[in-house]
């Protein structure tokens, strides 16, 4: 039996999450903004019809949104993440073979789904998600991940398909691939599309028919696999078990420019605290911490531009927030320059390892890592919400913190923000 994969994703996912809890938004244009309410990162079809582009700065479209009664929301990642979790629980009721590709997309294996056809299974999956979670979705079907992704794209662009496109047969691929631009194939970026169009490859069908060796010359081995996948030959496996993280980062733009060193210490400490939480959640540790800070690219002529970064090496790999905080403080002291108005900072690390396999230092005391303290910290924050307990170094007032002035309630994760029915 030929393997059949499905890619299911939420339509305008962030906006759809907002609509679930406010039915009055159903046919109204809706957009969701990035951190600090900077740019449009999600748009409904009604908002796209008004000419609002992806990444459009909000200050440029503010008057348009007011005039056209566009519903504007700050990002509500806690809500979106929980809605995504609920959707993936439904997928796992259909099959255990699920790869969560992103917050709104998942690959699932429907080869052995108990339905007369995979199209029937896809339609049932869509209706179940809509009925139980409230999110509209589209499903693409194919024998490879690339074809499933392409089928999903076709389903979105063609309302007559009622949200499901099946590219599992040679006949279906022959009918649809000539109409799909090469830029719309998963894995083909802008630079790759330019290379392909120069040699006359402008559609998915023409890319499929490209000689494999020529594809490797133009697009490396990744392109060769992509062409094979378009021909229905699986080259990219489902990642049922997420691969171990190789790096981790926490970066933010400030809601207000930072001009005081004490504020920068607070901001970096807050980011380091979040980094430590992520590392412990994934059971990983790091032996170094990279910190950067810079001014805005759009600073005025009278402002002093500045950008700097540094890496602090730790005695041994750790995910202990207190050890990471000390490293972050040393980094800020090394980078800080008085005068510039800082717009963004962040902390990053790579080459992550599992703590039990990390090289130990001969010169550190046994209590260098406060394991019990970190475990207690994580338990409290998991039970009562992130940030319930945090190091004082991360600040209290936080005037630099990301602003969400138009954020909707976190309906599904906060008891005090549950929706009310009048």
UniProtKB/TrEMBL annotation:
Cofactor section: Mg(2+)
Superkingdom as given in the UniProt entry: Bacteria
The name this protein goes by in its record: DNA-directed DNA polymerase
Domain UmuC, first and last residues per copy: 5-189
PROSITE patterns: UMUC
Function summary: Poorly processive, error-prone DNA polymerase involved in untargeted mutagenesis. Copies undamaged DNA at stalled replication forks, which arise in vivo from mismatched or misaligned primer ends. These misaligned primers can be extended by PolIV. Exhibits no 3'-5' exonuclease (proofreading) activity. May be involved in translesional synthesis, in conjunction with the beta clamp from PolIII.
Natural source organism: Microvirga puerhi
Root EC class: transferase
InterPro entries in the cross-refs: DNA/RNA_pol_sf, DNA_pol_Y-fam_lit_finger_sf, DNA_pol_Y-fam_little_finger, DNA_polymerase-Y, DUF4113, Rev_trsase/Diguanyl_cyclase, UmuC
Keywords, in A-Z order: DNA damage, DNA repair, SOS mutagenesis, SOS response
Family: Belongs to the DNA polymerase type-Y family.
Cross-referenced Gene3D superfamilies: 3.30.70.270, 3.40.1170.60, 5' to 3' exonuclease, C-terminal subdomain, DNA polymerase, Y-family, little finger domain
């Amino acid at each position: 039996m030929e393997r059949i994969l499905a890619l299911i994703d939420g339509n305008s996912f962030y906006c759809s999450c907002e609509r679930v809890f406010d039915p009055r938004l159903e046919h109204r244009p809706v957009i969701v903004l990035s951190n600090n309410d900077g740019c449009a990162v999600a748009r409904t079809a009604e908002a796209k019809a008004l000419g609002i582009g992806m990444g459009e700065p909000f200050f440029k479209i503010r008057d348009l949104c007011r005039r056209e009664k566009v519903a504007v929301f700050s990002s509500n990642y806690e809500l979106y993440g929980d809605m995504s979790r609920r959707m993936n629980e439904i997928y796992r009721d259909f099959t255990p073979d699920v790869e969560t590709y992103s917050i709104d997309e998942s690959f699932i294996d429907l080869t052995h789904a108990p339905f007369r056809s995979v199209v029937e299974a896809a339609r049932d999956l869509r209706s179940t998600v809509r009925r139980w979670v409230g999110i509209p979705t589209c499903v693409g079907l194919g024998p490879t991940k690339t074809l499933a992704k392409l089928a999903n794209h076709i389903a979105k662009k063609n309302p007559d398909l009622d949200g499901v496109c099946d590219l599992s047969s040679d006949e279906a691929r022959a009918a649809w691939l000539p109409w799909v631009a090469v830029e719309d194939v998963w894995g083909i970026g802008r630079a790759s599309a330019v290379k392909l169009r120069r040699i006359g490859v402008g559609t998915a069908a023409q890319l499929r028919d490209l000689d494999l060796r020529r594809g490797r010359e133009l697009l490396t081995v990744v392109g060769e696999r992509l062409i094979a996948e378009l021909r229905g030959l699986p080259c990219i496996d489902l990642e049922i078990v997420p691969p171990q993280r190789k790096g981790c980062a926490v970066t933010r733009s400030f809601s207000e420019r930072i001009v005081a060193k004490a504020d920068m210490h607070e901001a970096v400490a807050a980011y380091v605290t979040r980094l430590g939480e992520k590392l412990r959640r994934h059971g990983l540790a790091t032996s170094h911490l990279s910190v950067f800070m810079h001014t805005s690219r759009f600073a005025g002529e009278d402002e002093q531009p500045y950008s700097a970064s540094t890496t602090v090496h730790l005695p041994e790999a750790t995910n202990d927030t207190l050890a990471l905080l000390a490293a972050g403080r040393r980094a800020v002291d090394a980078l800080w320059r008085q005068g510039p108005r800082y717009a963004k900072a962040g902390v990053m690390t790579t080459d992550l390892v599992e703590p039990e396999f990390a090289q130990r230092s001969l010169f550190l005391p046994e209590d260098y890592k406060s394991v019990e303290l970190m475990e207690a910290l994580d338990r409290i924050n998991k039970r009562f919400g992130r940030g319930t307990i945090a190091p004082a170094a991360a600040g209290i007032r936080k005037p630099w913190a990301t602003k969400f002035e138009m954020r909707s309630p976190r309906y599904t994760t906060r008891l005090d923000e549950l929706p009310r029915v009048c």
